[in-house]
């Protein structure tokens, strides 16, 4: 269960590209939107601050990101500079102060400086898991829908051959 974090947020990723989250998975209240810079660590050792519009539940202080959108933005960001990072594991670490993120657009910021201006998420975040819709017998558990694999955030075959 997610906990309250003064000054910080809770975070959940939605891995289903065809499912939009309009209600909070915790309190069932309507969600709004919040544009906020997310700090993402991409293996082996790369940080990217992505100004991203999340779904947001104020009472739960919950940000909801959509995996396919985040991966699309990261793919575009790395496509020309460091394409070998595309498809690597990543972790959304927290939120960066908006003012500091803006400064980083024109000035070089070290990873240490970036982390110093980052508020980590309250709990380690998790992915949302949806159940298959349909009619089921009393007591029968609904099976969990497996999220589809990423279409963009995958290693290119020529890169795999070079490793």
Describe this structure in words.
There is one protein chain. With 163 residues, the chain is an alpha/beta fold. It has one domain (10-162). 20% of the residues lie in helices and 28% in strands. The protein is built from four helices and seven strands. The chain has helices spanning 67-78, 98-106, 111-116, 157-162, and strands at residues 10-14, 32-42, 46-57, 62-66, 90-96, 118-120, 126-127. The chain has a seven-stranded mixed beta sheet with strand order 6-5-2-3-4-1-7. β2 and β3 form a beta hairpin. The termini are far apart.
Uncertain runs: 1-5
Helix content: 10-25%
Instruction: Spell the H/E element sequence.
Output: EEEEHEHHEEH
End-to-end distance: 40 Å
Please indicate the count of domains: 1
Give the strand content. 25-35%
Q: What Rg do the Cα atoms give? A: 18 Å
Major sheet description:
7 strands, mixed
State the strand order across the main sheet: 6-5-2-3-4-1-7
Question: Please, how many helices?
Answer: 4
> Count of DSSP E strands?
7
What is the residue-mean pLDDT, rounded to a whole number?
86
- State the shape: globular
* Class from secondary-structure proportions: alpha/beta
